[in-house]
Design brief:
With about 775 residues, the protein is mostly helical. Among the domains are: about 1-95 and about 610-770, Rossmann fold (3-Layer(aba) Sandwich), CATH 3.40.50; about 130-165 and about 190-225 and about 250-365 and about 375-420, no CATH class. It is built from 26 helices and 7 strands. It has helices at about 1-15, 45, 105-115, 125-165, 165-170, 190-200, 200-220, 250-280, 290-315, 330-350, 365-390, 405-430, 445-450, 450-485, 490-505, 510-540, 545-580, 585-600, 615-630, 645-655, 655-660, 670-680, 680-685, 685-695, 720-725, 755-770, and strands at about 30-35, 50-55, 60-65, 85-90, 635-640, 665-670, 700. It has a 7-stranded mixed sheet with strand order 2-3-4-1-5-6-7, with helices on both faces. Strand 2 (about 50-55) and strand 3 (about 60-65) form a beta hairpin. Helix 4 packs parallel to helix 12 (about 405-430) and helix 11 packs antiparallel against helix 16 (about 510-540). The protein is globular, with a radius of gyration of 30 Å. It starts with a helix and ends in a 15-residue tail after the last helix. The model is unreliable at about 1-25, about 540-550 and about 770-784 (pLDDT under 50).
Length: about 775
């Protein structure tokens, strides 16, 4: 034992992170690589041993072995009939300290990034595919501008312009006293332009924070270089791009997008400050010099915006090769140029302008209206492009008939609009204690807040319909449960509990319907809010007829309710996110949605949460490749649960065809087809999964009908029955038996190892890895 511990310490300190444990490996030694799923676990639980040793990796992600297996390479005879178990633990890539709950505030960016990967399958449509990616990147750019514009609305318009310029509001908030001309006796900072220049530091700091977080996570994730290899001829046009050498290395694109979005944020702040001063300088009789400077500044900002859009449109992802270049001049100079323009705008606004007083609102209504209109237009065009791609190669299992990407992009824009409108409305309510001292946020943001109550009513109706459908399905499942456990003494409560669990598990398959209804309603309600805002601006309330009075009265009620709902929802959102990183059970509840979102590389928005798979997939690929290449005839079985099965499949695609043939795949509770295949058909569609099954040594998949996440792979043709095991019985026993003297629990998505079928399938795969065992398909299995 002392010898093993010494080797463990030496191995943990000296083994490189991109290679296997040092030592000779005899032919026939099998490796079982375990990959956990959502929620994380410990290597002790995965290996069923309290003594584990890290053999390669770091504190973020690592491979562990049992202490007694550390020197397995020196004792090949001891492992002739059994594998060497290893556990890959990656939970620290997505969890950690509770501060990461703040990533939930970047949810709109993550959602729009998902839309990039949801495009339908299409062959020989390269230009249309590039147009799809371009439209999503532009939608992501509008979200950045919207977020920074909302910050400008709060800091510049509501606080510095309106509240500080009114006696009642400024006296109520003493921290604004030095900015108010009626409180500080016309001090230096009380001039409107200087107030705006000082307040502009808040949205500028927000932009800088987003840049910093993106760069920091970029250095930790995107800079992890995958294995260098040449692309096979069939990979460039194959059924999935997950096997391309540069798929998990988006360093260049993220750097370009980060520079462009940072510049866009800074230019938005410069435009907000400069346009307010320029509007005053253009009045009749204004100083010609300042008027000219205002025009030059605005022209420079427009030119900068054109460059930003060009950078976003110019280049997409490079996946066919490992692109290690970096556009250093662009990455450095574009944000720097935008920062220079911002400084010039601050100096221009701070210039002394006698007679300039803050009245009404800053000119922000056209900006938010243009953003809302552009986002709606982009989503509509994106839907047309997605429909064209889907018609090229129809997939009956694809979510929303290929329109999942546009629907998700619409939801991302809606989240951005709700967050910006809600925060602006709540800050205005907080500043305006008297209710009459300030004008409030732009009309469009107020109307966007009014959209929330009817949308919630619609969602409640939809949830009620889903509950009714689940109740109907539960009645059907009651009979099936009795058939599955025929001969058992009937227990009505037990039967109902099993049937209810099965019925609730099917709600996952209703997600496309929920997304379709929500996105369509959001688009229509958003259009209604835009029309309502324009109508309010053009029609004074005094001249409004009864119809307008009724509509405006209802809108005001909805606006007030929506404003409070956003405030409460925002608090619950952050609280729930913080709890999710402290409580394992809460993290499992939302873990699947969060891990699906951060599984994909940042291809549309650089400020989205980092992609953990750009670290996890190369880790697994290096481990599998170095093991299988150690000696001729070496093989392994990779066993993945839930999200771990997705990582395992992605890593297998990254192997060379020769290495892939030495790998057996065991998946259980896997969302590969049920979630990824339906929502991401271009990457996990039937053709992609069928090719994976044909290229690995063997693949077996286990699932339960009580599992709300995992499901069958449903491969077409002859390979289908060879992959899916028949649905596992859950619970294992209906009543008390000799093997189960206590009531057997309903396991659902967890603890697949408790089923005897798991051990049987695992042993069958491991038997294929032993020398001299022919590769035969499993017999006696039926398609799930």
């Amino acid at each position: 034992m002392e010898h093993a511990q010494e080797r463990a310490a030496r191995s943990g300190a000296e083994t490189p992170t991109n290679g296997p444990v040092a030592g000779p490996e005899s032919a026939g030694t099998a490796l079982e690589l375990l990959v956990h799923g959502v929620g994380g676990t410990t290597p002790q639980d995965m290996l069923d041993d309290p003594r584990t040793v890290r053999i390669t990796g770091d504190d973020t992600a690592a491979v562990f072995r049992r202490a007694e297996d550390v020197d397995a390479e020196d004792r090949p005879d001891d492992y002739r009939g059994k594998p060497v178990p290893e556990a890959y633990v990656w939970c620290n890539l997505t969890s950690g300290n509770s501060a990461r709950a703040l990533w939930l505030l970047l949810l709109p960016f993550m959602v729009v990034n998902l839309a990039h990967w949801m495009r339908p399958t299409a062959h020989d449509r390269d230009r249309t595919v590039r147009l799809y990616g371009l439209l999503v990147r532009l939608a992501g750019l509008t979200l950045t501008v919207l977020l920074v514009a909302a910050a400008c609305e709060v800091a510049l318009d509501l606080a510095a312009w309106q509240c500080a310029g009114k006696r009642a509001c400024a006296k109520q908030h003493s921290w604004l006293g030095f900015l108010s001309p009626v409180v500080s006796d016309d001090g230096w900072w009380s001039r409107p332009g200087r107030r705006l220049a000082l307040a502009a530091l808040v949205p500028a700091a927000l932009t800088g924070l987003l840049w910093y977080l993106s760069r920091r996570t970029w250095s930790a994730y995107e800079s992890q270089q995958p294995m260098s290899r040449q692309a096979e001829p069939d990979e460039e046009s194959g059924p999935t791009s997950l096997g391309r050498p540069g798929f998990w290395y988006g360093r260049r694109l993220v750097a370009r997008l980060r520079a462009a979005h940072t510049a866009a944020g800074l230019l938005t702040v410069a435009a907000a400050v400069g346009s307010a001063a320029a509007r005053f300088d253009r009045r009749p009789g204004g100083p010609a010099l300042l008027d000219t400077l205002g025009w030059l500044l605005e022209a420079a900002i427009v030119a900068g915006a054109v460059v930003v859009v060009w950078v976003v449109c110019r280049r997409g992802r490079s996946e066919n090769r490992l692109d290690q270049e970096l556009d250093e001049h662009l990455v450095r100079r574009l944000p720097l140029a935008a920062l220079v323009l911002l400084v010039l705008a601050l100096v221009y606004a701070a210039w002394d302008r006698p007679g300039w007083h803050s009245e009404g609102r800053l000119p922000g209504d056209p900006t938010f209206g243009a953003i809302a209109f552009l986002q709606g237009l982009l989503v509509i065009v994106l839907a047309v492009v997605a429909h064209v791609l889907h018609r090229t190669d129809p997939d009956p299992r694809a979510a929303m008939r290929g329109l999942g990407g546009p629907a998700v992009a619409m939801l991302a824009c809606a989240l951005g609009g709700v967050m910006s409108g809600g925060v602006s409305q709540r800050v205005a309510d907080w500043l305006d204690g008297t209710g009459t001292s300030i004008a409030g946020p732009p009309v469009l943001l107020t109307w966007q807040a009014s959209v929330i109550p009817p949308l919630l009513v619609l969602l409640l109706l939809l949830c009620g319909w889903l509950a009714w459908r689940a109740w109907q399905l539960r009645r059907t499942e009651l009979g099936r449960v009795e058939l599955d456990y025929a001969g058992e003494p009937q227990d009505t409560a037990r039967t109902r509990r099993i049937a209810s669990t099965r019925a609730m598990a099917t709600l996952t398959d209703r997600a496309p319907l929920v997304a379709a209804v929500t996105s369509t309603a959001t688009l229509l309600l958003g259009a209604g809010a835009l029309v309502g805002a324009l109508t309010t601006e053009k029609t004074p309330s005094a001249a409004a007829d009864r119809a307008y009075a009724f509509v405006h009265g209802a809108a005001e009620t909805a606006q007030a309710l929506g404003s409070w709902l956003i405030g409460v929802g925002f608090i619950l959102f952050v609280t729930w996110g913080r709890r999710a990183y402290k409580d394992a059970s809460a993290r499992r509840t939302i873990g699947i949605l969060w891990d699906v979102g951060t599984f994909w590389p940042r291809a549309a928005h650089p400020f989205a949460p980092p992609c953990y798979a750009e670290r996890a997939v190369p880790d697994l690929t290096w481990r599998m490749a170095t093991w299988t290449r150690a000696e001729d005839g070496r093989r392994l079985v990779i066993s993945g649960h839930s999200q771990g099965s997705v990582l395992a499949a992605a890593a297998a695609w990254q192997l060379t065809p020769a290495d892939r043939k030495r790998v057996a795949l065991l998946t259980y509770g896997s969302p590969l087809e049920r979630l990824y295949g339906r929502w991401f058909p271009a990457h996990f569609g039937p053709a992609a999964l069928a090719s994976l099954h044909a290229e690995v040594d063997c693949w077996r998949n286990l699932y339960r009908v009580t599992d709300p996440i995992g499901g069958p792979v449903r491969l077409p043709g002859d390979c289908g029955p060879a992959v899916d095991h028949e649905a596992l019985k859950d619970p294992l026993a209906y009543g008390r038996t000799l093997e189960h003297p206590l009531p057997a629990p309903i396991l659902g998505h967890g603890d697949y190892q408790a089923d005897p079928a798991f051990a049987e399938e695992r042993e069958r795969l491991l038997a294929r890895l032993r020398p001299g065992v022919p590769g035969q398909r499993a017999e006696g299995v039926v398609e799930g």
